[in-house]
Amino acid sequence: MLIDTHAHIYSEDYSDDIDQVIERAYQCNVRKIVLPNIDSSSLKSMLDLSTAYPQICFPLIGLHPTSVNEDYRDELQLVDFWLTKRKFFGIGEIGIDLYWDKTFLNEQIIVFRHQLQLAKKYELPVVIHVRDSFEQVFEILLSELDRTLTGVFHSFSGSPEQAKQVIGIGFKIGVNGIVTFKNSGLGSIIQEISPEHLLIETDSPYLTPVPFRGKRNESSYLIYVARKIAELHNTTVDEIARITTENAEKLFGI
Ligand code: NI
Asked: Which of 46, 73, 165, 194 counts the most CB atoms within 10 A of its CB?
């Protein structure tokens, strides 16, 4: 059994065939799928899918850094509100993104810090998005760290030193299709990280692993990520599946 710890399969890319996408995932032993939220516009479709597949789909609540703009207070209020209304399995995805746009950096910092505090209040794990922003994210995270705060650096593509920092505070490293890309350089880094620190994810619809790179991603392709990690660690897919599934179940309480 595998767990896709990061998939936006509630998005419009799947509106024609979502039931087949879930069915294919299930046939490929991907038995649980964690759904990170983006913003108020993605919430309804994410919750609808979670309601349709309560044993398979596990929703998170959060405001994505690329959705932070002048309306951030309204968006954050919605996150606050929903946390009082129903069960979520984590706060995500949250973080800082300086690749697409730096205009709202100060707002991104406020929003990230607020959501880390929500995670502590509700004792939920955080799913962190980093893009050209590791130093900023890590500094804020350290300042909010307490005994309860835990989570994952999703779609990790940092340096070996950054991986050590993440592991050092007890956070997990989320690995996806990037590890199957020849020139990513991620393989040699993941090779040095014990699987007990890893989660696997697809980040669907993005970052489709080889041999489907370039096509729409989906949770059933998670096996290609697991296989690559097994190859890098010179072990079996079953072993990687067992360890990463246990990691995911423990982190998200699923
Ligand atoms: Ni995402």
From this structure: 46
Residues 157, 245, 165, 191, CA torsion sign? negative
- The length of the chain, given as a count of residues: 254
Q: Which helix (H) or strand (E) holds 200?
A: strand 198-200
Q: What are phi and psi of 31, to 5 degrees?
A: -95, -15
Distance 127 CA to ligand 1 centre (A): 9
The answer to whether 66 and 101 have CB atoms below 8 angstroms apart is: yes
Task: Report H helices in 17-152.
Answer: 18-27, 40-52, 72-85, 105-122, 134-144
List the domain boundaries for the chain.
2-252
User: What is the C-alpha to C-alpha distance for residues 27 and 7, in angstroms, rounded to an integer?
Assistant: 17
Residue 174 CA to ligand 1 center (angstroms) comes to 11
Q: pTM score, two decimals?
A: 0.97
Centre of ligand 1 from the C-alpha of residue 205, in Å: 9
- For the segment 91-120, what is each residue's pLDDT rounded down to a tens digit? 999 999 999 889 999 999 999 999 999 999
